[in-house]
Write a structure and sequence with these properties.
Blueprint (H helix, E strand, L loop, with lengths): L8 H10 L4 H8 L3 H11 L8 H15 L10 H10 L6 H8 L3 H11 L44 E7 L5 E7 L5 E6 L4 H10 L6 E3 L8 H8 L3 E3 L9 H13 L11 H12 L11 H10 L1
Parallel strand pairs: 1-4, 4-5
Antiparallel strand pairs: 1-2, 2-3
């Protein structure tokens, strides 16, 4: 089924262009035609000719916004605006106002969410959006539509769970935890882009399968698979319990580096000192063995 290029695709396109991929390769991986990728790059690249994900997202959003201005029934009609302002209240819903004006109530909702946040408090649910009872979340598109699910993972003993820890600035810590032994590996990365994650794993590969969440920092998973010679699987959306060892380990690291900690203020040597202490501390869940001991026994066994 044909789809539009969306916010999940921008960082992947930018990263693959920087990695030297051709437009044909990018189109094949993302499921678009070469023409669609070429048009996206030409339309949203910067003046210096470089395609940057955050600027492409901003330009596309602005273009969509401007393309609809002249067709909007409320924005271009001061009398309708005044009528809505004078009538809308917590006891008079947009449906009632829309009936009086002869327009669809969703038109009023869209106008308020887009342009008049000061009127949100007058909506029946105070502007809180809720899914209809029994409905499911919209299926994620973009780069995540072709990933391998955690439910496809083979039943193996050694595998890793990975994630990133955010700080106050762009810099982050990329963490990997071996599931059985709790052995931890942590790497400082300059930002949360897929490029940075890929660069670390290309330089220092992990030789066993990995489970990630569906954050955009792992969008170059196919390139990581190629460079490390492994398979990568993804947890279900909004399911952190499917990567419990990694979530627990990140919580332990937060004891040393709390939320809003600036990772630019520490060196890799300081980070590795904390990780080494964790890997060589006996754990009750490991029958008072250390993660390093258990990991070593797994490799030798």
């Amino acid at each position: 089924m044909q789809r539009h290029i969306n916010t999940d695709d921008y960082p992947v396109i930018a990263s693959m262009l920087r990695a030297g991929y051709s437009q044909v390769d990018i189109a094949k991986i993302l499921g678009f035609t070469k023409g669609a990728i070429s048009k996206e790059i030409q339309r949203n690249k910067d003046k210096d000719g470089v395609y940057r994900a955050h600027n492409a997202r901003r330009k596309a959003k602005q273009r969509r916004k401007e393309s609809k201005i002249r067709y909007r029934k409320i924005d271009n009609n001061p009398e309708v605006i005044k009528k809505i302002e004078n009538t809308l209240s917590p006891l008079i819903s947009p449906e009632v106002v829309a009936h009086q004006l002869g327009i669809h109530h969703q038109t009023i909702y869209s106008w308020i969410y887009r342009s008049r946040h000061d009127l949100l408090s007058l909506l029946p649910q105070r502007g809180r959006k809720r899914r209809r009872y029994g409905s499911k979340r919209a299926k994620k598109q973009g780069w995540t539509q072709n990933v391998k699910s955690i439910h496809e993972k083979p039943n193996i003993t050694i595998y890793w769970e990975g994630d990133t820890i955010k700080g106050r600035t762009k810099s982050r810590v990329l963490t990997h935890v071996e599931h059985t032994s709790l052995y931890t590996r942590a790497d400082l990365i300059p930002d949360g882009t897929a490029d940075s994650v890929h660069a670390v794993l290309k330089k220092k590969p992990i030789k066993n399968n990995i489970i990630y969440d569906r954050g955009s920092e792992f969008a170059l998973w196919e390139m990581i698979e190629r460079d490390c010679g492994i398979e990568i699987f993804f947890a279900d959306p909004h399911a952190p319990w499917q990567r419990p060892k990694n979530e627990n380990t990140n919580g332990r690291l937060r004891r040393v580096y709390p939320k809003k900690f600036d990772f630019d203020t520490i060196t890799d040597r300081q980070l590795q000192k904390s990780v080494q202490l964790m890997n060589n501390t006996p754990r009750k869940t490991l029958n008072w063995r250390t993660p390093a001991e258990v990991y070593e026994s797994l490799l030798s066994g």
